[in-house]
Design brief:
6-stranded mixed β-sheet, single chain, 20 strands, 30% helix, Rossmann fold, Ferric Hydroxamate Uptake Protein, Chain A, domain 1, alpha/beta, repeat
């Protein structure tokens, strides 16, 4: 039987690689932190163990689960079952189902991975909440963009403050937990306090109570754009590698346009939520500039980022579901991560020593690296050039903006066969492939794949590429000389140089290359 893999409370369907996988869920996962979409068939964004408890396959005592990958679908329903409220998702690219795993595989897993499976003592482990540190499972930098317009008025403004205060307290603010700040939207936006000003819930609560009502038009678009651009700077207390979130509270509708602000927020890697209260009535809709204002502003219009409350009265029951959303980081699709903020150029040796069948293994390696990234018009991008003595651009960064198209373009690369001029090829790629994107927001990477000695100098062209802001990884196979590989690679050279005797060894390198790209991406952020 297949041995099972021990997973964590937060492992999602999309984190599993095989079509059918036996996993072992730990005991005592915090039910309220589970993110589950659908019922019976779950969107692959869902927590595997959460889905297993939701569907009744296991209890919170954990256990063995068999996960089967299924195609994506539309309209995953929200159903409350076994203590977990699943959520609606309008569509997702893949799904999974869960059934009971077998006991024999579960025992093997316990023997294999003690680190993630907590020993069961029969007692629940005490949750030690270090008050100052806050809720470490919800690290986020959050701006509450509150409505201070005449639309809302003084009385409802106070109810809004109470609600925001309750959300702030439940988030578990602390030095290692979420940090929050407040911006008031009215005629002109005003930052009331920054992320760095307070790291204790008591202080935040006090600061919220003290806020004065400004009045004026509800120029929410203007305030959203301003907040996305100005609020999350390092000097204002934003932290590296932590999701940035703006929660926009809107009473009624905005007086200005939200579309441009939504685009700016996405470019800045900010996840925008809209909490709309007292939606415009049918009679009022005539006064609304753009009926689709919510969909234009939110991070993604998949239903997750919009939240509605009928009035400002009796809002306590709305606090917890909103906090759950703000704490589910795997859902923050607009955050900048290494997966959605890099350009990866592949420089592929097409020389005659490789041969047709090995060339296919090289293309498979390229596909497997590309597959790990979120390729889209506002996400990561991939390009490929094949070289012998000459260079042949296969496709550029802007030619294909979906992962499917990129993968099919890689499959369609035909083998050139010829000599090896790697230096020239690097110069060509730096100028023609990276040149057009050098001022873009993404970080640039070049992966050079070669199986032999270059006829020309590689050191000069590689240094020029690095000077142009491109991080170079060299991947050598068979007869590629180590000196050349090291000369091409970025510093520190050891971690940017890869070598395998056999073409079949390329497959093992894929995770290390992806990890290397992510490490460089994180190191480069500030």
């Amino acid at each position: 039987s297949l041995a099972s893999t021990a997973i964590t409370c937060f492992t999602r369907g999309l984190d599993l690689r095989r079509g059918t996988e036996d996993v072992l869920c730990p005991a005592n996962c915090p039910l309220w932190q589970f993110y589950v979409f659908g019922d019976g068939v779950y969107a692959s964004l869902s927590s595997v163990c959460g889905a297993a408890i939701h569907s009744g396959v296991i209890t919170n005592a954990g256990g063995a689960v068999r996960v089967k990958t299924l195609p994506g679908q539309e309209n995953y329903p929200a159903v409350n079952a076994n203590g977990i409220q699943s959520q609606v998702l309008s569509r997702w690219a893949s799904s999974f189902s869960v059934t009971a795993g077998t006991k024999s595989t579960a025992l093997e897993a316990v023997g294999r991975s003690v680190s993630t499976a907590r020993p069961s003592t029969g007692k629940r482990p005490k949750k030690t909440l270090d008050k100052k540190a806050g809720n470490k499972d919800c690290k986020a930098d959050i701006a509450f963009l509150i409505d201070g317009s005449y639309n809302i008025g003084q009385r409802r403004f106070n109810l809004q403050k109470n609600f925001v205060g309750k959300v702030a307290v439940m988030l578990g603010i602390g030095t290692d937990g979420p940090h929050v700040g407040v911006v008031q939207a009215s005629e002109h936006p005003k930052i009331e306090f920054y992320l760095k000003n307070f790291t204790a819930a008591k202080e935040v609560l006090f600061a919220i109570k003290e806020l004065g009502f400004r009045g004026g038009n509800s120029n929410t678009g203007k305030a959203l754009k301003y907040t996305a651009q100005k609020f999350f700077s390092l000097e204002n207390g934003a932290r590296k590698g932590i999701p940035k979130i703006i929660v926009v509270f809107l009473d009624g509708w905005p007086s200005d346009d939200l579309e441009e602000a939504g685009i700016v927020a996405r470019e800045f890697g900010v996840n925008v939520f809209i909490v709309s209260v007292a939606k415009p009535t049918t009679e009022e809709l005539g006064m609304v500039q753009d009926i689709g204002f919510v969909d234009k502003a939110v991070c993604r219009n998949n239903g997750f980022f919009s939240y509605q409350m009928p009035t400002w009265f009796g809002t306590t029951k709305y606090v917890k579901p909103l906090v759950q959303k703000l704490c589910s980081h795997e859902q923050m699709l607009c955050s900048k991560t290494c997966y959605n903020s890099v350009n990866i150029g592949f420089l592929i040796d097409g020389s005659s020593s490789i041969g047709e069948s090995n060339f296919l293994l090289v293309l498979e390696f390229v596909s497997n690296v590309a597959k790990a990234f979120e390729i889209s018009d506002i996400g990561s991008k991939v390009a490929a050039v094949q070289f012998t003595y000459d260079q042949r651009p296969e496709f550029g960064f802007t030619d294909h903006v979906t992962k499917e198209k990129v993968l099919s373009a890689i499959r369609n690369i035909s083998y050139m066969s010829g000599g090896t001029a790697t230096g020239d090829a690097i110069s060509f790629t730096t100028k023609n492939v990276f040149g057009p994107v050098k001022d873009g927001p993404n970080k640039n990477f070049l992966i050079v794949l070669t199986d032999g000695q270059s006829y020309d100098d590689v050191r000069g062209p590689a240094a020029a590429a690095q000077k142009a802001g491109i991080t170079v990884f060299s991947v050598g196979i068979a007869w590629a000389p180590l000196d050349d590989l090291k000369d091409m690679a970025s510093e520190p050279r050891e971690s940017h140089t890869f070598f395998t005797r056999e073409f079949t060894g390329l497959e093992q390198m894929v995770p290390d290359i992806i990890r290397g790209i992510c490490k460089d991406y994180l190191d480069s952020k500030q």
